[in-house]
């Protein structure tokens, strides 16, 4: 059975699943219920001088009937007194000594204020500190949060202040609202940070109410840009975490954040080098209970893959991310449609014609199925043929039974064919196909040795020199 | 149009809708489920080729009015077709979801959602901006074929007059569809919308003697006259206590027939027989039998209609042929198929108590009077037309609907009418015939 225990920047963790600093970690009562549900750690809702929040605070992006593909918030840090938060941290640690509690901190950018805050948080018993240099709304207008995280010099300076007094590991939380996230990661490392967490939320306006013309969330007729998170941001987070982890000047233990809602997401972030993962939106959507399958699913997958610890696969995908110029130009794949699985939706056909390279055709029954002769009809010709066809309601007694389609599900005329000589192997058809494994990409040997762009241009350079 | 219609409250109560309207939330969930197939099989299967994914995705985007307009573009009776179409054998029957281990998209109910929303908001069927042409077309018969033809001709700027012989227009759409599928008032609402397009509807019967006048006054004549009287039971005693299925259905829908006997025997096993049998149950009959001279494999009713009848408590007597009716007792002979494959009547007799006998054994063709209009060819009692244009063998006459196809669905009639309208427009030299 897989062992999910891990040590993160010196902190012992029963599993890599932490709650991110956010509403689910607002108070001790919540954090203790989360630990009961199985969460291994929690980064406390950011502690600092209490603020006043507005209502409303959240808005979301729904997609094709699915709720909260992305979530946006304009909530600030904790609105509760520092001493209340710290007292509750102490109580949680007393009752759950094996669980990780990280104090997320954000205070005025003064050395003495930071020193004071660090001492108080550690005295309360927190296992580590997360410096919130990422909050993109509200706090940044007051010179905190992403206002610090967007300027490498500030980030380094405050990290240094904190490290002057900190006795526990210090994590710097990075903002994605910057051109190259590595610049601040390097500054944090330079400042002595023990670990990083990334990404914080992304600047966003989720949408505008088409009746009131007010962006969401609506606060008395006005809105403000907020921080975007949830499933929609996962690819952005994965890219940023990978780029930090692949940069020797940045790399530190990484607590990954950004759209993680399942064990699959967690495994992906671990594969690009994350030590732990932090979750917020998925818990805000479904509650603490989701951690059960995150633990169970990850363990099951590790067992199937033969990994007994997280270290067995951590970072395994890092060497597989490279610059484009190192990709093999002589690798060719083409789409293959499994006719017996095809349901005849023809989404691959229109996607290929309008969005790719015009090489998936629906003329399977009307012409040569392959070769150099271009016999295909264009998409609108098929539509016009349908619209001018004569169809009637089949009455059992009056009409012959429908022609059997053999072992195919769809009529042969609706099962597209791929012109493999034209297919560029872009994957689009396999992405739009609603049937699992119906369209697969098959490698076609081209009889050439692997060659990258860098190698090819180098060769050309030699030729030119000659 | 004819006289105003007031629904009978008792009938409305006894015939609640089989499929209730979708709520906005349910419609949204269902609309999002649609895969948005390209050149979709559902569109292909629809005789009027409603662009199904297009109207469904408009519901999903929140453009419900646009959804209804795209339905009406293809089928001016989109509202009633949404209710009466046998979607199980049409659009929904061809939905690719069947192959994906999912239920097909509820296309009929989504279409109704869009159309209810459209009419509920008091919106008008859009008419293309065309100059009024000095061309006049007469549509004889006021059912779905003529209405489909008339609406399409209006889109081309042609002036149309529909002649309908009954009190209320709409033909079988008004008088012949089970009330739990389509209410009379819903059929009439649609007809009003078609009148708003500028279609003139006159409640006037066209007799043989009128055709010469029509030919003089109109540039083309569309025959959407449907079928004739229902076949009669030719058995001894087959007069008293007999009410044919279409009279029964029209009678209860208009509130003129409020009860049938306690025991009812419906003869035949097509969709009309099912409608009559279920109606008899709802009108209070204790025992309703469908008597059919063949077996379940050969019934012409759709499978889902048969299932519905079973749920309503209708009983089926297979392999029985009525041979006499006397004092509330129907005498039936057993039938079978001989070695030559012919239906033969055997010796065994069955008696069935039936206060009312309802023949539902098809309608006779109207060929008798139509055949005397010169030059129009008939075959097997049906008007012979070019399917693509509805053109008959007489240059001035076009035809569609049951009188051409022998009796199919509302949507088939609308499609026939629409094709004929384009055929007429082309024949009259109207350029830029609408398509879509």
Q: How is the secondary structure organized here?
A:
The complex is a heterodimer of chains A (466) and B (436).
Chain A lengths: L5 E3 L2 E3 L3 E3 L8 H10 L3 E3 L14 E6 L2 E8 L8 H14 L4 E6 L5 H13 L4 E5 L13 H4 L2 H14 L4 E4 L7 H10 L4 E4 L3 E3 L21 E4 L4 H12 L8 E4 L5 H9 L4 E4 L1 H6 L4 H15 L27 E5 L9 H9 L4 E2 L17 H9 L29 E2 L9 H5 L6 E5 L9 H13 L1
Parallel strand pairs in A: 3-4, 3-14, 4-7, 7-8, 8-9, 9-10, 10-13, 13-14
Antiparallel strand pairs in A: 1-2, 5-6, 6-12, 11-12, 15-18, 16-17
Chain B lengths: L8 H6 L9 H10 L7 H5 L6 H10 L2 H11 L3 H7 L22 H14 L15 E5 L3 H12 L3 E6 L7 H4 L8 H13 L3 E4 L7 H7 L2 E4 L21 H9 L9 E5 L3 H12 L4 E5 L11 H9 L3 E3 L2 E7 L2 E9 L5 E11 L2 E4 L7 H4 L7 E2 L2 E2 L13 E3 L2 H4 L4 H18 L9
Parallel strand pairs in B: 1-2, 1-4, 2-3, 4-14, 5-6, 5-11, 6-7
Antiparallel strand pairs in B: 8-9, 9-10, 12-13
Helix pairs in contact in B: 2-4, 4-5, 4-7, 5-7, 6-7, 8-17, 12-13, 13-14
What features would you describe in this structure?
- The complex is a heterodimer of chains A (466) and B (436).
- Chain A is an alpha/beta fold and 466 residues long.
- In chain A, 31% of the residues lie in helices and 16% in strands.
- Chain A is built from 14 helices and 18 strands.
- In chain A, the strands form 5 sheets. An 8-stranded parallel barrel of chain A has the order 3-4-7-8-9-10-13-14, surrounded by 8 helices. A 4-stranded antiparallel sheet of chain A has the order 5-6-12-11, with no helix packed on it. A two-stranded antiparallel sheet of chain A has the order 1-2.
- In chain A, strand 7 (100-105), helix 3 (111-123) and strand 8 form a beta-alpha-beta unit.
- In chain A, helix 1 (28-37) packs parallel to helix 2 (82-95) and helix 5 packs parallel to helix 6.
- Chain A starts with 5 loop residues before the first strand and ends with a helix.
- Chain B is an alpha/beta fold and 436 residues long.
- In chain B, the strands form 4 sheets. A 5-stranded parallel sheet of chain B has the order 3-2-1-4-14, with helices on both faces. Chain B has a 4-stranded parallel sheet with strand order 7-6-5-11, covered by helices on one side. In chain B, strands 8-9-10 form a 3-stranded antiparallel sheet, with no helix packed on it.
- In chain B, a hairpin with a 2-residue loop joins strand 12 (378-379) and strand 13.
- The relative contact order of chain B is 0.14.
- Chain A binds chain B through residues 64-65, 343-347, 349-350, 362, 379, 382-383, 386-398, 409-411, 414, 434-435, and chain B through 28-29, 32-33, 35-41, 43-47, 49, 60, 85-86, 89-90, 96-97, 99-100, 270, 298-300, 302, 387-388, 405-406, 408-409, 411-412, 415, 419, 435-436.
């Amino acid at each position: 059975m897989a062992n999910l225990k891990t040590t993160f920047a010196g902190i012992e963790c029963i599993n890599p699943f932490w709650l991110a600093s956010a509403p689910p970690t607002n108070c001790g009562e919540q954090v203790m219920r989360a630990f009961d549900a199985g969460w291994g750690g929690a980064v406390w809702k950011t502690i600092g001088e209490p603020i006043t929040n507005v209502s409303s605070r959240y808005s979301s992006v729904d997609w094709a009937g699915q709720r909260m593909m992305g979530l946006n918030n304009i909530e600030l840090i904790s609105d509760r007194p520092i001493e209340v938060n710290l007292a509750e941290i102490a109580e949680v640690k007393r009752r759950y000594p094996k669980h990780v509690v990280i104090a997320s901190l954000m205070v005025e950018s003064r050395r003495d204020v930071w020193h004071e805050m660090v001492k108080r948080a550690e005295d309360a018993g927190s296992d580590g500190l997360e410096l919130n240099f990422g909050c993109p709304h509200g706090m940044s207008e007051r010179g905190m949060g992403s206002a610090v995280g967007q300027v490498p010099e500030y980030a380094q300076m405050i990290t240094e202040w904190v490290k002057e007094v900190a006795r526990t590991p210090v994590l710097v939380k990075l903002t994605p609202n910057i051109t190259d996230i590595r610049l601040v990661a390097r500054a944090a490392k330079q400042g002595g940070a023990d670990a990083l967490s990334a990404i914080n939320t992304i600047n966003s306006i989720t949408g505008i109410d088409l009746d009131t013309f007010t962006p969401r969330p609506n606060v008395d007729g006005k809105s403000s840009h907020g921080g975007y998170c949830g499933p929609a941001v996962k690819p952005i987070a994965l890219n940023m975490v990978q780029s930090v982890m692949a940069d020797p000047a940045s790399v530190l233990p990484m607590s990954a954040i950004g759209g993680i809602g399942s064990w699959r997401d967690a495994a992906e972030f671990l594969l690009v080098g994350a030590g732990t993962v932090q979750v917020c939106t998925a818990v805000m959507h479904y509650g603490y209970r989701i951690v059960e399958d995150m633990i169970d699913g990850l363990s099951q997958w590790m067992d199937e893959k033969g990994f007994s610890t997280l270290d067995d696969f951590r970072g395994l995908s890092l060497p597989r991310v490279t610059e484009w110029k190192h990709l093999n130009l002589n690798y060719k794949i083409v789409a293959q449609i499994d006719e017996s699985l095809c349901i005849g939706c023809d989404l691959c056909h229109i996607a290929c014609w309008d969005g790719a390279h015009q090489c998936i055709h629906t003329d399977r029954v009307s012409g040569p199925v392959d070769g150099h002769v271009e016999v295909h009809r264009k998409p609108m010709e098929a539509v016009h043929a349908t619209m001018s066809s004569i169809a009637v309601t089949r009455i059992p007694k009056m009409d012959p039974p429908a022609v059997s389609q053999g072992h195919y599900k769809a009529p042969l005329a609706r099962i597209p064919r791929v012109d493999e000589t034209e297919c560029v192997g872009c994957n689009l058809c396999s992405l739009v196909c609603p049937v699992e494994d119906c369209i697969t990409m098959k490698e076609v040997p081209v009889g050439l040795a692997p060659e990258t762009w860098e190698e090819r241009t180098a060769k050309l350079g030699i030729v030119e020199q000659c | 149009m004819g006289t105003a219609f007031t629904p009978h409250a008792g009938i409305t109560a006894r015939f609640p809708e089989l499929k209730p309207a979708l709520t906005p939330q349910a419609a949204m969930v269902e609309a999002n489920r649609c895969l948005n197939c390209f050149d979709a099989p559902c569109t292909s299967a629809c005789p009027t080729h409603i662009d199904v994914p297009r109207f469904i995705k408009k519901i999903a985007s929140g453009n419900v009015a646009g959804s209804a307009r795209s339905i009406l573009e293809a089928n001016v009776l989109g509202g009633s077709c949404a209710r009466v179409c046998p979607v199980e054998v049409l659009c929904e029957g061809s939905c690719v979801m069947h192959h994906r281990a999912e239920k097909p998209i509820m296309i009929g109910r989504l279409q109704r959602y869009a159309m209810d929303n459209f009419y509920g908001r008091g919106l008008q069927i859009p008419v293309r901006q065309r100059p009024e042409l000095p061309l006049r077309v007469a549509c004889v018969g006021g059912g779905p074929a003529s209405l489909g033809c008339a609406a399409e001709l209006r889109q081309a700027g042609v002036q149309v007059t529909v002649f309908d012989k009954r009190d209320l227009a709409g033909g079988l759409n008004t008088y012949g569809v089970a009330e739990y599928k389509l209410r009379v008032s819903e059929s009439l609402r649609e007809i009003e919308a078609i009148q708003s397009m500028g279609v003139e509807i006159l409640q006037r019967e066209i007799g043989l003697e009128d055709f010469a006048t029509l030919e003089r006054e109109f540039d083309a004549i569309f025959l959407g006259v449907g079928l004739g009287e229902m076949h009669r039971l030719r058995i001894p005693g087959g007069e008293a206590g007999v009410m044919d299925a279409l009279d029964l259905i029209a009678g209860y829908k208009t509130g003129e027939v409020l009860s049938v006997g306690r025991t009812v025997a419906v003869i035949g096993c097509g969709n009309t027989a099912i409608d009559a049998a279920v109606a008899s149950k709802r009108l209070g009959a204790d025992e309703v039998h469908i008597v059919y001279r063949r077996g379940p494999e050969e019934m012409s009713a759709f499978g889902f209609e048969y299932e519905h009848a079973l749920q309503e408590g209708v009983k089926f007597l297979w392999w029985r042929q009525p041979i006499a009716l006397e004092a509330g007792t129907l005498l039936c002979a057993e039938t079978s198929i001989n070695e030559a494959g012919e239906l033969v009547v055997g010796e065994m007799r069955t008696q069935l108590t039936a206060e009312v006998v309802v023949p539902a054994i098809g309608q006779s063709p109207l060929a008798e009077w139509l055949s005397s209009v010169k030059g129009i060819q008939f075959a097997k009692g049906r008007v012979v037309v070019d399917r693509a244009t509805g053109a008959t063998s007489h240059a001035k006459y076009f035809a569609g609907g049951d009188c051409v196809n022998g009796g199919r669905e509302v949507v088939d009639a609308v499609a026939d009418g629409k094709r004929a309208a384009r055929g007429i427009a082309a024949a009259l030299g109207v350029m830029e015939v609408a398509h879509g």
